[in-house]
Specification:
Elements (H helix, E strand, L loop, with lengths): L3 E10 L3 E11 L4 E5 L6 H9 L6 E6 L2 E2 L10 E4 L11 H63 L15 H14 L4 E5 L7 H18 L3 E5 L2 H7 L2 E6 L2 E6 L1 H6 L4 H6 L6 E7 L30 E5 L2 E5 L13 E4 L4 E4 L12 E11 L3 E8 L6 H7 L5 E6 L9 E6 L5 E3 L14
Helix pairs in contact: 2-3
Length: about 450
């Protein structure tokens, strides 16, 4: 196996369209790096550049310390698994697995034999002896390859499918066969281009776990492309978040999710989008940002946390949530933006006890409830005089916030509730640049 390094790598298409612009990216030996980003962010282009299917406009690609820009794809020792598996339908699974290695190994042995051994056999024993020696080479190769195919099939749990035709396989079985072909190649680097995106949810989860186990067993260097944030968080040793061909942030799944580098990363990562508020000051001299993570203000500092005399407000469309000065972490920024994930907006009925911590809150009306097994994800709007869900959603277009409640609460559309904002887990961003104002703080 081998590590990978990209230096000042760019790809510009005609019309000055920049598909990727990577200053520097290193993938350690044995690491599984996931490239994630919206469509058009350059994920597949980066894979194609590494594999040699595209030529970079500028920059260098190093594999195992060797610059490979000028090497053709077949000499880079890279295996690529695509979304489309390209299984030969009329061949058995065994033949689909063995075809590539057989061509490569027999081709190499035949070339070596033609150059070195065959002239000696012809000189000493004639044409018949040369043909016999050639058949012995093929037989030896066949025995070794059969054993490798059996071992790979056992690793992927497809031993029972070896005699089945490609046309008789399910989507998940086809993907396992495609993965087996890549493993049999014995590459220095595995490249995966959204290989699970065409499968159903349950099968995707199953194969995702199998791929993770496979990575651990092989100790292989892998780069995996996906637009599914949950898949990226589940699979990766590290995640690189891309936007318009550039890396916005690279780090462990926990770092990217809990300490996003900027507003784009915060909004993109997570199965439910983050809620964003403008932090509006109310003419009060606010304290500088606290240095610690998740600090709770003193009772004096947070006395106005839930009252109308808050030192500042969370503002989004028609939302106005009064917040005490002790919760301020925006420093001297006058255009700070606060981000709260749905799990950090706690929904309670008015008669239920509030969450601990004297958190700021606002009255709201439920417009939509999604059951998620362990919790309910609810869309809420500021409380108004309209009673029906339809009228409420029409009155406040774009003003919907997402929050979570316990399943046993049984929230229903149209209910009046209290939305509590857990400011201990808030993310703070510069309103102009979008950068994280507290990048080293844990949430």
């Amino acid at each position: 196996m081998a590590g990978l390094k990209l230096e000042k790598l760019s790809k510009v298409y005609p019309g000055e369209v920049t598909a990727c612009d990577i200053r520097e990216l290193e993938v350690a030996d044995g690491e599984l790096l996931v490239l994630v980003g919206p469509s058009g962010s350059g994920k597949t282009t980066i894979l194609r550049l590494i594999a040699g299917l595209e030529e970079p406009t500028s920059g260098s690609i190093y594999l195992a310390g060797r610059r490979v820009n000028d090497l053709p794809p077949r000499r880079r020792n890279v295996a690529m698994v695509f979304q489309s598996q390209a299984i030969y339908p009329h061949w058995s699974v065994y033949k689909n697995l063995a075809f590539g290695p057989e061509l490569r190994e027999l081709g190499w042995r035949r070339r070596l034999y033609q150059r070195l051994a065959r002239p000696l056999h012809l000189l000493m024993g004639g044409e018949a002896d040369a043909r016999h020696a050639s058949s012995r080479q093929r037989l030896a190769c066949s025995r070794e390859l059969r054993e490798r195919v059996r071992q790979t099939a056992a690793l992927l749990e497809i031993e029972a499918l070896l005699e089945r035709r490609g046309s008789e396989l399910s989507g998940g079985e086809e993907q396992r066969v495609a993965l087996g072909r890549a493993i049999l190649r014995r590459p220095a680097l595995f490249l995966f281009d959204e290989p699970l995106s065409s499968l159903d949810v349950q099968l995707r989860v199953e194969l995702r776990r199998q791929l993770k186990r496979l990575h651990t067993r092989l100790g292989a260097t892998m780069i995996y492309v996906t637009h599914d944030q949950s898949e990226a968080l589940a699979l990766a040793d590290r995640i690189a978040v891309l936007k318009e061909g550039k890396i916005e942030q690279i780090g462990t799944p926990r770092e990217v999710y809990e300490r996003p580098a900027n507003r784009f990363v915060a909004g993109f990562m997570g199965t439910s989008p983050m809620n964003f508020f403008q932090a509006l000051t109310c003419g009060v001299c606010l304290p500088p940002a606290c240095s610690g993570a998740g600090e709770t203000p003193t009772p004096q500092a947070r006395s106005a946390s839930t009252g109308g005399d808050g030192a500042w407000q969370l503002s989004a469309h028609e939302w106005r949530v009064a917040v005490g000065a002790g919760w301020w972490h925006g420093g001297s920024e006058e255009t700070a933006v606060v981000g709260l994930r749905p799990e950090d907006i706690l929904l309670r009925r008015p008669e239920e006890p509030p969450p601990a911590g004297n958190l700021p809150c606002a009255a709201a009306t439920v417009t939509l409830v999604e059951y998620q097994g362990d919790a309910c994800l609810a869309a809420v709007v500021p409380r108004n005089t309209h009673e029906s869900e339809k009228e409420a959603s029409q009155e406040w277009p774009g003003a919907v916030l997402l929050g979570k409640a316990l399943v046993r609460s049984g929230l229903k559309p149209g209910e009046h509730i209290i939305a509590w904002c857990d400011m201990r887990r808030a993310h703070w961003f510069d309103g102009k640049s979008g950068r994280n104002l507290r990048p080293t703080s844990a949430t």
